[in-house]
């Protein structure tokens, strides 16, 4: 059974930083894509960042480029999202997902339960 477990969320002031982690278990191979997504109250879930595990190529939403960095450990068991220069509009529930394609929400097969990020002004 595949499990994705996020951690690292919290409350910070604007301009601060957080590092999210997503630990995966139950899958012995390497996902083709892993990604981070977020959903704010009343809004649709949107792609934030994704990593193509074959080349470690990365994709970012325009709204987070230059501020967020996605990475993965060498064992391909944990994916990270380093978030710097956080803004109040980054406030959302953040989800880790695996086995999908780039930032397209509907293509991902496995999802974590989410971790809350709240940025105050």
> Whole-number radius of gyration?
13 Å
Share in helix: under 10%
In one word, what is the shape? globular
Order of SSEs: EEEEEEEEEEE
> pLDDT average, as an integer?
94
Specify the structural class.
mainly beta
Low-confidence stretches: none
SS element count, helices: 0
What is the percentage of strand-forming residues? over 45%
End-to-end distance, in Å? 40 Å
Brief write-up:
Strands 2, 4, 5, 6, 9, 10 and 11 form a 7-stranded mixed β-sheet that branches. A 4-stranded antiparallel β-sheet has the order 1-3-8-7, with no helix packed on it. It is 0% helix and 50% strand. The chain is an all-beta fold.
Write a structural description.
With 121 residues, the chain is mainly beta. The protein has no helices and 11 strands. The protein has strands at 3-7, 10-13, 18-25, 33-39, 46-52, 57-60, 68-72, 78-83, 92-98, 110-111, 115-120. The strands form 2 sheets. Strands 2, 4, 5, 6, 9, 10 and 11 form a 7-stranded mixed sheet that branches. Strands 1-3-8-7 form a 4-stranded antiparallel sheet, with no helix packed on it. A hairpin with a 4-residue loop joins strand 5 (46-52) and strand 6 (57-60). It is globular, with a radius of gyration of 13 Å. It starts with a strand and ends with a strand. The mean pLDDT is 94.
